[in-house]
Amino acid sequence: MSNVPQFPAGSVLGYPRIGPRRELKKAIEAFWAGKTSADEVEATAADLRRRTRTRLAELGLPTDVPAIPSAFSFYDHVLDATAVVGAVPARFADLVTDGGLDLAGYSTVARGRGDDLPLEMTKWFDTNYHYLVPEIGPETVFSYSSDRPVREFAEALAEGVVTRPVIVGPVTYLALAKATEGSPEDFAPIDRLQDILPVYVQLLAELAAAGATWVQLEEPALVSDSIEVPAERLLAAVVEAYGVLTGAESRPAIFVAAPYGDLGAALPVLAATDVEAIGIDLVRGDVPAEAVPGLETKTLVAGVIDGHNIWRADLDAKLAILERLENLGAAAVTVGTSTSLFHVPHTTEDEPNLDATLKSWLAFADQKVREVVVLAEGLTEGREAIHEQLLEASDAVNSRKTAPGVVRPEVRDRVAALTEDAFNRGDFETRKKAQAERLDLPPLPTTTIGSFPQTPEIRKARAAFVKGELTAGQYEDEMKAEIARVVELQEQIGLDVLVHGEPERNDMVQYFAENLDGFAVTENGWVQSYGSRCTRPSILWGDVSRPAPITVAWAQYAQSLTQKHMKGMLTGPVTILAWSFVRDDQPLGDTANQVGLALRDEINDLEAAGIAIIQVDEPALRELLPLRAEDHAAYLDWSVRSFRLSTAGVREDTQIHTHLCYSEFGQIMGAIDGLDADVTSIEAARSKMEILGDIAAAGYPRAVGPGVYDIHSPRVPSEAEVTELLADAVKAIAVDQLWVNPDCGLKTRRYEEVTPSLERILAATRTVRATL
């Protein structure tokens, strides 16, 4: 297009969308509970968007050029794209009106209803965010079905703010989709590219008509080898898609953002198209070694500020990167974030209880916006214009290097002294026999993953304890009473291996962070995990050790209430790293081994206390897998070894469980085998046991528990549904290898859903056992 509008000197790819106090979460959950109307939720959402625009302007982003992204979502940005292109699964077709999906219909597609399963959920690249996987088949009809991006742009423009609409690009949307059930074996959703492009063309025309000067199309699939579309087909899709979109008669200028990694071979392909701007991740990716043909007509948006972690940037080093980029011959270089900032909390200013020195090392979303603004000024006005800010940032970076606790010689000496024996448990068959004799469990033993519903009463008691309204003794009594209720319920239902329900734990990572040296926790550091689910990632800032036992007393108490085996419950080292903001000043493998040793001490104490089954959860094992295949081996080596370091110190007759959820596991079956856990439970219900084929093909020798109850939906599965899943499992896996369990912990569900679901699981198990 001629007369390309100016791209802002500094911008961000996105901003937290849940609200500083999780206002969106509370509004949408009230709507689901029937306590508020759709109009009231829309009003809350509009207020959040307005406050975001105001805040970003206060932080220095201009409002007369599209520096402020329009990237709001009620639940998930991939589901938003599904709503725009009209690709609603046939089982939800009755929810679609002339205006597309209303809020109730949108929520139902995300959460399911009755026997209609929601869209499958899985990890968004190598982050802890979960997206809803589109279902695309040869029969899927694409149509422009939601003008929400246009309406939200117009909303901002009416207030005098020129925003930049953000939507998942067509290549990534189809690359991440799964084929609908019954599609031909040789069909792939990317085959429908030509059919979906007219919808994007229409959306671009509507945005242009509304006054949008730029649109941001997100194409992170271009930085990954971990998707099923072959690289050659993906690059051909880029040429095809952006040939059509840039040739559209009426459109805004197109900014293609490619976060989460290095574009590699995709950069010259994208540069050869007629898009007007390209965003590259220069935190995970590298500065191109030489000029790239095609960039001379484009703006290069340099993602030098880390959108995925919370450490303050070395602005001097970042400015040096920006100055190097000017030698690549791009028409312009501007400053951006490596990813959307929805991966980080809102602001450090909302953390009054964090240590002041630690806080000086941090940059949450607001602080990162300021860093972008400062660097943009330095790039356009010269280093002298930001001299004081460069010095201040350098002082903070240097302070981290020398602060007490960042390096602890006794911790590092212990890691350095490890021998290979510390990572190995010995022969599995010998362990299997010893455990069978000790545990004496029936075929298809039943259990849960660990947590039970965190009721309002539990949360109220925890809040009162934090405020000092309950003494430590009173709080302990409250938690013990809840544990007793959970144990009694499991006895009544008939589960074979019990859990204590974890009422004392606010979060499966934060709980351990609060009890390990080297961590800090936030008060308001919320980030979105999926839908309305928010977490507060802990901050791993120093060398890690365990000053005292953490879970032992709770496990002992729970075991005293039952003659059945009680699982000890821990979070594994990889997941603790994945779901925390981790120090970036040493290799992740070194940090993982420190955490692994701390957990090893805890596991040994649990075993000494008489706990026969210990579960070490690693739901994030697949999540941290690098996006480029060349980096897989090194990651899988240190991640697997850190788990084995945690668990290899127990006796043969102590059974080690682990749990993995919401990931595509086929790629890492070798690593799952390498964990050497005696029992591995895996998410499988929403995907209808797809993992069974991978397990069977791999000849996996140890026990597995493919999930039969999708806990990320409010649906209560029918007994017949669970029976069918179990029957499929028995056909694929030897009976003596199978356990029966939900997909994940039950913390986020209500007892009205959990109790009947577990009862149906037990009934289905009895039915299948009778056929053996």
Architecture overview:
This protein is of the alpha/beta class. It is 40% helix and 13% strand. It has 26 helices and 24 strands. The strands form 7 sheets. It has a 7-stranded parallel beta sheet. Strands 14-19-21-22-23-24 form a 6-stranded parallel beta sheet. A 3-stranded mixed beta sheet has the order 15-18-20. Strand 21, helix 22 and strand 22 form a beta-alpha-beta unit. Helix 1 packs antiparallel against helix 2, helix 5 runs parallel beside helix 7 and helix 22 packs parallel to helix 23. The longest helix has 22 residues. The radius of gyration is 26 Å and the shape is globular. The N and C termini lie far apart (68 Å).
Classification by helices and strands = alpha/beta
Q: Give, in spatial order, the strands making up the sheet with the most strands.
A: 1-7-9-10-11-12-13
Please outline the major beta sheet. 7 strands, parallel
Strand content: 5-15%
Rounded mean pLDDT is: 95
Cα end-to-end separation: 68 Å
Residue windows where pLDDT falls under 50 for at least 5 positions: none
What is the number of strand segments? Answer: 24
- Rg value: 26 Å
Shape: globular
- Count of DSSP H/I helices: 26
Instruction: Give the % helix.
Output: 40-55%
